[in-house]
Structure formats: structure tokens, C-alpha cells
Amino acid sequence: MSQTLAELRETLRRIEGDGYQRRPSLPFGVSAIDGKLANGGLRLDALHEVAGARPCLGDDASATLFIAGIAARAWGPVLWVVKRRDLFAPGLYQAGLAPHRVLYAEARDDAELLAIMEEGLRHRGLGAVIGEVKRAGLAATRRLQLAAEGGRTIALLLKGHARDGADPLGQPSAALTRWRVKSAPSAPLSFEGVGRARWRLELVRQKGGEPFEMLVEAPDETGRIAVPARLAAGPAPGRGADAEDVARATG
């Protein structure tokens, strides 16, 4: 009996695994990240949530640029739904998202914003649909996930901090992955100036995989983030903080 059950489990695992791998995905191009994601990247026909780690402008900007880098590497036009006109196009361009690819829509409130996102996902002619909300309940995220399934349009929901101080990712959600982005000290330079921005990137939850956290560098002009070269090469003797980052990055 035990052998029969083991064979049945293995058969189910192969069936489920093959079906999951057939889903289209968008890899980060960073093995330390893609190797930890259940689909080898972000599933395109799915909803993904991102939030700044703290209620501050620095983390909000970092989370926005993280999303911009993902959208930059997606195919086709990008629909970005906002409630106020505060996006800085040159900053998005620096993260690889060219202005001519972005279609902006302005919503009156979260409910209208989520409805516009749902329509954009069902259109099937967009590479990414992005929205910025304070709150989105489980029912709303399920609708976005269902609207995305079967297509190639990635849904990215940027969740802001509410005034009550609640965790933006604390509510139940149908999102396949949930990320926190925290700004970190930039790379030191041998001359006066500011180096490439760095973030503490945390995958809080993912369907079919484990959470993780690592230090990364912000997107370049192609929308690609990177693991700092010194960390990717391995920890240097006597550098405890870097050793911890490598351990998180390599598992």
C-alpha cells in the first residue's frame, strides 16, 4: 500500500509540475533570484504585489522602480493606473521603462483603479498592468488574478502604507508573489559621488516556493537588477554583513 501511495504522489507531482512549468514567466536574469522562484521567474499570467518596507518616500520610490524594472522587461505597452499624477517619467526611464511604452490612466479611488486594472488585463494586448492602491481585499485580488490567467499580461499591484500603520501585505491576497523593498546604502565609490542604488529585497510569500531576502542593486537602463558583484563572488574574510547577504542570496 505504501509503495502504491508513493507512486501515486510521484505521478501527481510530475503532472502538477509540468503544468506549472508551462506557464509563461519573466525571469529576472539573476540566478540567485530565479533559482528560488517556483516558476524560474515571475509568472506573466498572474498578479504580483509589491510594497515599500517602511512608510517613507525612499522605500516608496524603491518599490516603484522595482515594478518599473519588471514592466520594462515585459513585452508590449504598459498600462499604469494612478490616483494622482506623481510618477516621475525620467526616473522610470532610468529603470528601463521608456515613456512611449506607458499608457497612464487616472482613477478616482481604489475601487475604480482595480476595475480599470481588470479591464486592462482582459484586453490581452498589454505587456503589463500596474496599479497603486492603499487596500485591496481578497475578492479584488482574486478578480485580478482570474483576469490575468490565460494571457501574457503581468499584473503588478503597488500597495501603499495606510494611515493606520497596517502592514500593506498583511491582508490575505490571491497574488502569486508578494515583495517588500527597502532602500539600502548605495555602492561605495573610489571618488566623490553616489553609486548605484541598492535595496533590501524580500520575497514575503510565493505560491509553490519559499520566501527569501537579499541585497540587490537597482535596475539598470535595461530594467535588470543585479546582485552586488562583491557579494556574488562570495564573502570576503572578516566581512560579517556581506557574508550574511551571500548566505541569504545563495540559500
UniProtKB/TrEMBL annotation:
Residues 231-251 are annotated as: Disordered. InterPro entries: ImuA, P-loop_NTPase. Residues 231-240 have a biased composition (Low complexity). Residues 241-251 have a biased composition (Basic and acidic residues). It comes from the Bacteria. This is Protein ImuA.
